[in-house]
Amino acid sequence: MLMASTTQSLEKGVEVTRNSESLAIKARVLTGINEMLKGDFGSVAQEVIRSVINLCVMEWFWGADDSMWAHLRGMKHMINLRSGLRGIKDIVGESIIILTDYEISCCFETELYLQSNDPVLLEEIPIPTSWPDGFDCPLIRSNVSFDGVRAKLGLTEAGARILDDVRFLTTSITEADGGPASIRKIQGTASWIYSRLSNISGKEGGQGEKETEVADVADMASEAERIEEAVRLAGLIYSWSISSMAQISQFKDGKTLERAYKAMRAVNLTRWKDMPGIFLWIMLVAAPSTKQDTRGRFIRRKMAVAGLSIGFESFGVGISYLRAFWLVQRWIARQGKPAADSLT
After folding, report:
1. Does residue 200 sit in helix, strand or coil?
2. What is the distance between the alpha carbons of residues 242 and 251, in angstroms, rounded to a whole number?
3. Burial class (CB in 10 A: 0-12, 13-18, 19+), 126
4. β-sheet bridge partners, residue 288
5. How many of the other CB atoms lie within 10 Å of CB of 220?
6. Does residue 155 contact residue 224 with C-beta atoms inside 8 Å?
7. How many Cα neighbours within 13 Å face the side chain of 342?
């Protein structure tokens, strides 16, 4: 009930802190959890842990970061009481926790928290080679290029090419040997992609001078062009982060961030649902720059929903996408330099 009430408020643009219904339900939920914790934790662990992880997600949606971290600390303590995630003995709850841990870590560009020092991290996650139709994502390797499925996904030729470049760049990092030559090559590739995407005019296949103003999203005739623009700008920010060895949150070009948001919003959400893997990547790129405002809550919510939806359809696919993005962030953190040295 709380999740439904919260989501309904946010979708209507109503601040949750001003929604008396949501606040009343939240108070009852917290009271109920506290009552359960007064008894034998072992007998109610699964129910309590599922409830608290949902609270974490909702606080994250609301932009109440302090409350979210407080719930996460409580969650971590409960996991430790069960001797790790496997001790919960709830495969669905465990899957939600792992997916949420990756999503929050990607948003805040941090190490994993709920899985830290947990034996589950030692388990190898097999990277899938197939997934449901439309779930293609530029974060893991595929035997089929985006150009090969662009008709099925409704992509422009230029949009598919960008996604193939992003996939090549991402897998160059996640599969890299870590040597200096490899790092230089990755940075060079990212710089080339960043430069190329900076010069695209916003129309399919269009090229122009870097200083030339790109076409306004509202002037793009087709939804495929608007998808291309959303992909281009996400790729621009993503490649900037890798080429400059600076986290996405350090990207300070407000005009580009604004345009990226407008491009994403110019595409019908139903259309994005047909390509959740691409949408998840775009939301993962957008999330680190979010603030505790209406736009930030929207981006966080859609990113979380996209990741969880893919994960519920196929846990292996969902976790592989999130983990790949997180690995890129961790690679940047290891190799990176201070924000003052970044390009933007």
Report:
1. strand
2. 11
3. exposed
4. none
5. 19
6. yes
7. 24
The Cα–Cα gap between 334 and 315 comes to 28
**Rounded Cα–Cα distance for residues 168 and 187 (Å):** 13
Reduced 3-state DSSP string for 20-41: HHHHHHHHHHHHHHHHHHCCCH
- List the beta bridge partners of residue 207: 200
Q: How many residues comprise the chain?
A: 344
Structure tokens at 181: 């030559």
Q: Give the residue from 305, 295, 299 showing the smallest Cα distance to 15.
A: 295
Q: pLDDT by residue (tens digit) across 134-185? A: 999 999 999 999 999 999 999 999 999 999 999 999 999 999 877 777 899 9
Q: Is the dihedral of CA 243, 185, 144, 204 positive or negative?
A: positive
Name the DSSP letter for residue 291.
-
Looking up tokens 């196929």, which residue turns up? 314
- Tell which residue, 181, 132, 173, has the closest CA to residue 325: 173
